[in-house]
Structure formats: C-alpha cells, structure tokens
Amino acid sequence: MSEKTISKSIAIKTKDPALKMLDILRGLAAFYVVMAHARWILWEGFSSGYVLHPQQYNFFDKFLMYLFSAFKYGHFAVIFFFVLSGFVIHLRQANNGLFNKVYRLDLGYYFNRRLTRIYPPFIISLLLTFALDSFGKQIYTPIYTGAVNYTLSFLHLNTNFDLVFFLKNLFFLQKDNSELWGSNPVIWSLQMEWWFYMIYPIMLFLNKKSFIKMTAVVFILSLIAIIAFEFYPNMIFKILGYFLLWWFGATLSEIYIHKGLHQKVSYSFLVLFLIVPSIIHLKDFYADLIFAIGVCGIISTIFYTYKYHQIIKWPSFLTKLGKFSYTLYLVHSSIFIFIAAIYMRANTGHLPSTFYLMIVGVGFVLLFSNYLYFITEKPFLSQTKRKLPSQPKFDQ
C-alpha cells in the first residue's frame, strides 16, 4: 500500500463524526464530578441534614434533593475518564499498527503534548488552591481541619504548605491522600493519569509489533499489583492495578481502528448490564474494574449510534464544556470549599438546607473555568497542533 493511499485511508477513518463525541463525553464526565462535589460540599447532606429536619424541606427542595441524588457516584465518573483517556491516547498508535504494522511512538511529540496539556492548568490550580486555602482558613478554619458536623468532617485537608509538599504534588510523588495539595483532592486521579502516561511508552517499546502481547504484559503486571496491594497498600501497586482500566480504553481504540466498534455493538449491550451490579455488590477496585468494562460498552454503543443513526444533535455548549473540562475539573473543589467557608462563617457553622448555594457555586465555577481555559490551556494547545504525517487529527 502506497504512502498516499495510507494517508488517505487514515484521513477517512479519522473523520468519523463519533470522534467528536469524545470531547462531549469528557465534558459531561467532568460536569458530573463537579455536581457530585457541589452536592457534597455546598449542601448540608441527607443523613446530616434532611433526616434530622425534613419539615424544613418544601416540595421543590425535596424534588431537587432526589434529582441531585443521581450525582452521588462521582468516583465512577473518574473511572470513565481513565477509560476515555486510554482510548484517545492510543488512537494514534492504533492507526500506526494498522497501516505500518508496527507501533511507533514519537517520544518528543508525545511528551511535549503531555507536558503542555497537563502542566499549565495544573500549576495554576496549585497556586489558586494555595491562595484560597490560605485565606479560607482565616475565614472559617473548621472546614479545613474537618471539625464540622457534616460529611465533610472526614476531609482533614493538608494545608501545611511548604516547598517539599509543593514538589511532591508538582511531580506527582504523593504516597497517599494525606499528601494531596490542600483542598484539591481531585489531584489523586491526575497523579494516576500522569503515571499511566509514563508507563504507556514502555509497553510500546517492549512490544512494538503486537498489541496482544502488550495486553498480556499489562494484565499480568496489573494482576500482580492488585494482589500485592491487598497485603501492602502502596501507591505504585495502586497505579499499576488501575493501569489495566486505562488499558481497556486503549484496547477499545484498537477494536475501533481495526474492526469498527459498530461490529462489536452486540457485545457492548451485554457489558452494559455489568454496571449496576458493580456499584451495588462490589467495592473499591473490583467495582471500578467491572464499571470500566461497562464504560467500554457505553462508548461502543455511542459509536454504533453515530454510525447508523446520526440523529443526535448535541447543544453547542456541550462541545464548549468539553474544551475546558480539564480546567473545570482541577479548580472546582477548592472554590467550592472556599465558598462553603464563607457561608458557614456567616451562618454559625451551618450549610444550607436548600440548593441555591450549590446552583450558584456550580454556575460560578463553569464561568470561571471557561475564562481560565483561554489563559491556561488554549495558548499551549495551539502551539502543539503540529500534525505528524499519517496521523489522526484528534488528540487529547
């Protein structure tokens, strides 16, 4: 096959309109996490609020309470991120494997892309968290120490900022959640992602010609790590174990490039049924593992729908949401906790029994993150739009 034919074939393949859905999915997942945290931080809660005085809730408040209860599974939205990330990152190499029969990774481009994608918004979020936490502790200290009468009581945020603490977070060397940067606990998932990005090139280097061999190595390493973590809870083992979930996404991109997800849709509907039992009957990693398989089914179903029934027209704001979803994810937690500190100081340590603070808080972080995107993300993404020959246009 000639180089010209290869380029043409890849261009046709990567024009699939379903690929545009990936940004929308990422945006929706980020919004879900934001809503989950807003419900947790900016409302008094079900067991620590509503159960104690249900008479204070009118019909509309009760309606919103049950409506927003759909956002109590924020952790699973992060698992969705992991799978989606694996799909997007490996998509370029899946194309290489199809037409060049070898998985070649341009390390310079890859690491430049990862660094410019991750660090500018991340550094800004660290500085923002430092500023908000330093000021917030002076406004209402108990919320930062966990000394409140709500589910927030188990936060116990580490706000003892110093250079060593900063460097640990900057280079993702935290050993556990107690070393996460202040009121920004979402960094735990970013730490996982970063090390996924570091492990991925090693997998390609070890098995340049066989994705099956790569998958076998990942499975064995993750299995060993999962077992080891049960006896010795260590961040390294946790990262290696969760890398398997990320690899599910990479596997899905292989299926998409080589077979077409529309040919696998019958399987995707079956794995969708694994989601509910994973949430109800399993705990921790095993629930995440099964849910990740379900995510593959969701993505497959979406691709199938776009393949044969391109009838879904998503509002334009969802596309915009996808663009600044990373910044949104990084800054929302610190802002919510700061807002809660202001409110609790003015209301003798109480959070509201209505949802107006939650709605206002979510609206503010959406607007603020959209504005921050043009400072922390867009300029750097524009500099890395150099396209490699015979590569898909979509990249994370």
Automatic annotation (TrEMBL):
Annotated transmembrane regions: 24-42, 63-89, 118-135, 147-167, 211-229, 235-253, 265-283, 289-306, 326-343, 355-376
A GO molecular function held by the record: acyltransferase activity
Tree of life domain: Bacteria
Sequence ranges assigned to domain Acyltransferase in this UniProt record: 22-368
InterPro entries named among the record's database cross-references: Acyl_transf_3_dom, Acyltransferase_3
Keywords, in A-Z order: Acyltransferase, Membrane, Transferase, Transmembrane, Transmembrane helix
Family annotation (Pfam families): Acyl_transf_3 (PF01757)
Protein name per Swiss-Prot or TrEMBL: Acyltransferase
Species the sequence originates in: Pedobacter segetis
